[in-house]
Amino acid sequence: MKKLLILGYGNPDREDDGVAWHIQHALIKKMGLPAPASYEDEFPQAAQINFAFYLQLTPEMAEEIADYEYVCFLDAHTGNIPEEVRLIDVKSDFQRSPFTHHLTPQSLISICETLYGRKPRPPCSRCAATNSSFRGNYPMRPVRSSQRPLN
Fold first, then answer.
1. pLDDT digits (tens, 9 = 90+) for 47-73
2. Nearest to 2 by CA among 105, 118, 127, 93
3. What pTM was estimated for this model as a whole?
4. CA–CA distance, 14 with 19 (Å, rounded to integer)
5. Centroid of chain to Cα 57
6. Is 7 strand, coil or helix?
7. Is 146 buried (19+), middle (13-18) or exposed (0-12) by CB count in 10 A?
8. Which has the closest alpha carbon to 9: 63, 83, 78, 70?
9. From 10-14, 25-29, 40-44, 104-108, the region with the lowest mean pLDDT
């Protein structure tokens, strides 16, 4: 069984929603590993820690997280959270959502447990960060002339 997966998700094109990729990027550099140039590139894997980044959580990821002893979910926090970074325990709990594209870490762990009869060991955690500590540090891609706003 693999040791730790740091699973980031969000949309880097929406600035604050992509804070997870920037946290992962900084961790990779701190570990002395070659950092990916963009969120579309693969992260290098370390002996004890693997990194993965996705635009959103999907039910298919249950198979991936089933192979890990520990999982830490990274994303931008929403709502009224006073801290810039908050670490939250994540327990297996399927949560229904009116949005078809929204899956919580709790629901993903629940799907993993239901389908594979196993789940990452507690404590699974979610590190939720606001973009205020990263403001101004986003490498924005230039807009190509072929990109026009939709009318």
1. 889 999 998 899 999 999 999 999 999
2. 118
3. 0.77
4. 9
5. 8
6. strand
7. exposed
8. 78
9. 10-14
